[in-house]
Amino acid sequence: MLDGLGRLLHTMWPTEAVAPTKVKAAKPPALINPELPLSQISGAGIRDLIALAKRADVPRRIQSGPTCGLFAIGMVMDFFHEQDPKAPTAIVSDGDEGRKSFVEDGQRYPGRYNFPPTTDEKMLSYAQKKGLTQDGELYDADNLAKVAAHFGYGARVRDQATLSDLYQVLDQGRPAIIAIDYDLDTQRPVDHGGAGAHYVVIEGYFDQGGERYLVAKHGDNRADEDDCVWSAADVEEAWNALHHNDFYASTPLPAGLELPKAGPHSHDIEASLNAKLIELVPPGQSFVLGGRTIAAPT
């Protein structure tokens, strides 16, 4: 999910052109001085920190188009499906077929899905049919939860969520989906008032050099690494920066999306997206947090 500029960049720079990453090897963690700033840690040391930090190692999917929320659902589905093949998993769109991730010569090449889907129905088609989205963008956390619920997951939205809420989910070995304001050029969380609203999956956290960091995956990561490392303070700021967005500046809102006007060319997304945490659980598992349980539209 990106603003109008993001849609243009997706056309100019397809997201599937991503460098492969090494499959993680089992090895002892490097000895790292916890007082050193992260900037002084070697690449190998950072990889060790990430491996130790991840409470939920989510398989990565590479998104196509403004579909970050749907791909975030897909990555969480793959996480639970990897634990239990009975947990549902689904492909985002018809264009994803034949683009499965694979490993070759010790290198992992991420794709648009990781496991054969348990259903022929596509998430994008369903969301469009229900009027939740135009092209895959989901500017309402409830609408994202509705898609996940339709595909067999328990879905709950925590309003005014905090980092403490996030840590509670992670400490139970679960991933969490949040939306942040995001800068495509720097590939970092920012405060642009919501112009770069983008869903990410948080996998874990660690402390280094007196600062806390979050480990995340998202579908539009153009770096070589599967995992992103961002300061918790930056993520918190970007998580609470979702106020207005111009994605629908020149097109009408989908029938199932209600956003107040924020000006002649933008909509208010604060009530629908700002500081929301989406918790998904497969059938038979309970939620970690309280919140609003969301059902699929009938």
Descriptive account of the structure:
The strands form three sheets. Strands 4, 5, 6, 7, 8, 9, 13 and 14 form an eight-stranded antiparallel β-sheet that branches. Strands 1-3-2 form a three-stranded antiparallel β-sheet, with no helix packed on it. Strands 10-12-11 form a three-stranded antiparallel β-sheet. It has one domain (4-19, 41-293): Cysteine proteinases (Cathepsin B, Chain A, Alpha-Beta Complex), CATH 3.90.70.10. Strand 7 (197-208) and strand 8 form a beta hairpin. Mean pLDDT is 89; it is low at 3-28. The protein has 298 residues and is of the alpha+beta class. It contains eight helices and 14 strands. It has helices spanning 4-12, 43-53, 68-83, 123-129, 141-150, 163-171, 232-239, 270-273, and strands spanning 21-22, 102-104, 107-109, 154-158, 176-183, 188-189, 197-208, 211-217, 228-231, 244-245, 261-263, 266-268, 277-281, 292-293.
Attribute tags:
disordered N terminus, alpha+beta, globular, 3-stranded antiparallel sheet, 8-stranded antiparallel sheet, Cathepsin B, Chain A, 298 residues
Question: Can you give me a brief rundown of this structure?
Answer:
The chain is α+β, with helices and mostly antiparallel strands and 298 residues long. The chain has helices spanning 4-12, 43-53, 68-83, 123-129, 141-150, 163-171, 232-239, 270-273, and strands at 21-22, 102-104, 107-109, 154-158, 176-183, 188-189, 197-208, 211-217, 228-231, 244-245, 261-263, 266-268, 277-281, 292-293. Helices cover 25% and strands 20% of the residues.
